Amino acid sequence: MSQKRLFLIDGSSLLYRSYYAVQKLANSSGFPTGAIYGFLSSLRKLLAEEKPDYLGVVFDVKGPTVRHEEYGAYKAHRKPMPDDLALQIPVLKDVLRALRVATAEFPKYEADDAMASLAARAATRDIRTVIVTTDKDLLQVVDARTSVWNPSKEMTIDTANVKEVFGAEAGAVVDVLALWGDPTDNVPGVPGIGEKTAKALIQEFGSLDNLLGQLEQVKNPRVREKIAQNRELLELSRRLVTVTRDLPIELDLDRYTVQEPDEKETIRLFGELEFSSLLPEFLKAPRPAAKSFRTICDEAELRALAARIAEAGEVALDTETDSPAPTRARLVGLSFSLVPGEAYYVPVGHDYLGAPAQIPKKRALAVLRSVLEDPAIQKTGQNIKYDLIVLEREGVRLAGVARDTMVLSYLLEPNWGKHGLERLGLHYLRETKTPYVEIVGRGKNELTMDKVAVERAAPYACQDAALAQALGVILWDKVRARKLDRLYEEMERPLIGLLARMEIVGVRVDPAILRSMSKELEGEIGRLEKEIHDLADCAFNINSPRQLADVLFHKLGLQPSRRTKVTKGFSTSLDILEDLAEAHPLVRLVLDYRQMAKLKSTYADALPALINPETGRIHTSYNQTVASTGRLSSSEPNLQNIPARGPWGARFRRAFVPDGGHVLLAADYSQIELRVLAHLSEDKALLATFLEGRDVHEETARLVFGNAPEKDARRRAKIINFSIIYGTSAFSLARELGTSAGEAQKFIDRYFAERPQVREYLDRIVEEARERGYSETIFGRQRQVPELRAPDKALQQAGRRIALNNPIQGSAADIIKVAMLRAARALEDRKLRTRMILQVHDELVFEVPEGEAAAVEPLVREAMEGAAELAVPLKVRLGFGPNWADAK
After folding, report:
1. How confident is the model at residue 835 (pLDDT cuts 50, 70, 90)?
2. What CATH number should be reported for the domain holding residue 747?
């Protein structure tokens, strides 16, 4: 039988390493979690790779130890523990307790002493100990039954290699450190004797005692004299670096045995810390809560289910398909949940050898149509926009959408970024969800859902519906408690259906225009590449950061400003190159090259590939639950990033065209965020600018620059106007304006001197956010700003910028959502065929039959300009055209 192994982790050491490796991580409430996350990642790896029999984490005790009592300067040079690290220690201990990992510490002694003593006790029971630490002091305990694992070097140090690693045998480690000292712990050693000399002396004399007994034989008189003069310091150092191996600390093998975690408590703590990705690594086979799940393959049973849904008047539902893109997906099955813990799966499209008989899709949808299309039956779902689109393409118009758990969660926790069902189930229900990849597989073995066995798909699909049912109740109660229900009912819920319709309609692009642009860009890229190589006087890969850095900073001798975090090479990021643009003409060419390459790959080449062959249009996906401010974003493709300015921007937008017999109408809010600022701040000067119809940027230019050249002054004033909204520092503003930080600060001071109520308002909303813990828009949308209460100054500054910007940008986002709903309702009321097809930033784009143009323009203008009652008028620029670029 192989020898059993005890792994002892130097908890304090690993926690510090983890803190500096994952420093900025925090959960959505602002509690720092980076050190805990890093620690658990290392622990997970150790458990998976080493599979220890016994495991313990040993911590240093708080306060002075016996070494401090003997030597007051012991570790005196160390900085106090960072506040945001200290906060994490008790939580980490709670997590380890939930994982059933033994912890230990011994009063007045360090973790080194406790681990050495535990290792000594383990040896008496024929247990091999592996100490996990980066501390070289502990190499002194290496022997036949004790080794050290250095996690930073990923190396085991035992009797076979300790001399190779340290330069002395384990038995000589104390002697070497006594001479050399230990700067980490402020152990003095012998002044003037370094590592090399200390190791050479012990190598020559065999031990410190032999050295002291034969001191006259030391050849170097200077070394001999230093040792003779510092005998007391040497003996003190020897005592300080010697670990204690006989502390009366108990090794209870039952407690140190690796055990299964306390599942409920682990799920709770990981949920609070928002470590959902780590959870399955510790709960080896996470089990969903016990449920009653049934598969329905009989039409009579399906009719009975439809009757139950009609009687209940509410149902949670989910669709399973063969694609994540709803406008291309085919329906594979539907799941329903009426009451907690009960769900049904109706497979309709599983297609594989040996698949069971299923109700034909058309028959199943015919049976379910009456309940799916009944607006009186309230529907709950997770990301129900997806289901709306899938069912619409199958000829079923889902009605009665009541609760979208993804959107409800987003209103409660807008900082999360992702609101997947796995996270929501863990956070709100303490229930683990079967991961999608566990059902369909990964990589080359990945299946589409129609190829997954019904018996595997059914529990997964049923759990989705059951989770949505349970979450719908919980989240709705929380939304009402936070007084966010009106925002949901009047804005976010109706928006779900509108966005679904926009995605289904899509937008037409002309692939011929894009192909032509791709060829032009390819030629431009080739021309720039040649110019760059000529200027560099060598050929190199411009896309290689390392090769580019070599040319810029070695061959051309430009001054680098920082290194990369990973490779430690010189950075060639965009901001670095922009700073160097005036230093050498090659840098400007590289910036142009990168821009052309991005335009080609991201738009000219990518957009044609996204055209749906069935519709001839691009169907972007609008993200309602991503941006913390409340703004919509889009993906596949990201329309928010379609170039807007410059000759290339106009040409890309020219590729967006209407169907025959139609024109495009583009309606864009004018300076909406600055108008919101005027409304919220009630600044008299700013209000007057908009009420009297003056140009706000020209006004700012006059206030800040006086008689500067008009065109350039307006451009620079525009930068200053938006820097106020975004809480930009004088340093950052200086970079944008190309001036000094001192000059930029003067511009900011002049702005606030002329618009004092803006300053008062901005100070006030930051303080309100700090007191309440969140900022709020005009419409009541809330965003938590935990950074304002963080101990870290950089986080506080980030929180201040959020608190300044969020009410303004968030209110602008809410206004355009209201405008979208008002415009859609106006078009529907008039029974017009005009369709809203795009929402990008502050702009809406419509596809308008030529005969409806005259009627549509005033409807859209009124819908947008009347979307909010502000102290200043909302203004919209409208234009018709044969393409997006010309509709201005």
Report:
1. very high
2. 1.10.150.20
> Does residue 417 fall inside a structural domain?
yes
How does pLDDT run across 632-666, given as a tens digit for each residue? 999 989 988 888 777 888 899 999 999 999 999 99
Residue with tokens 């379609």: 642
- At residue 62, the pLDDT reads 84
Residues 6+ apart with CB under 8 A from 818: 491, 779, 867, 868
Question: Which residues, 6 or more positions from 784, have their beta carbon under 8 angstroms from its beta carbon?
Answer: 28, 29, 30, 413, 414, 415, 773, 774
Q: What are 361's two structure tokens? A: 């899709």
Find out whether 636 and 621 touch, Cβ atoms under 8 Å: yes
- Give the pLDDT score at 565: 39
Task: Give per-residue pLDDT as tens, 350-391.
Answer: 999 999 999 999 999 999 999 999 999 999 999 999 999 999
CA 316/CA 379 separation, integer angstroms: 6
* Average pLDDT for 192-203: 88
Instruction: Tell me how far apart the alpha carbons of residues 653 and 643 are, in angstroms, rounded to a whole number.
Output: 8
Mean pLDDT over 781-788 rounds to 91
- pTM for this structure? 0.79
Is residue 502 domain-shared with residue 536, that is, in the same domain? Answer: no
Mention every residue, 6+ apart, whose C-beta is less than 8 A from residue 656.
Answer: 507, 508, 509, 664, 838, 845, 883, 884, 885
116 & 248 share domain? yes
Residue 838 inside a domain? The answer is no
Residues 455 and 552 in one domain: no
End of a domain among 779, 811, 843? 811
- Are residues 690 and 799 both part of a single domain? yes
Domain count, the chain: 4
Residue 142 sits in a domain whose CATH number is 3.40.50.1010
SS3 at position 7: strand
Alpha helices by DSSP H, listed for 374-453, are 384-393, 405-412, 421-429, 436-440
Where in the sequence is the domain holding 738, given as residue range(s)?
673-811
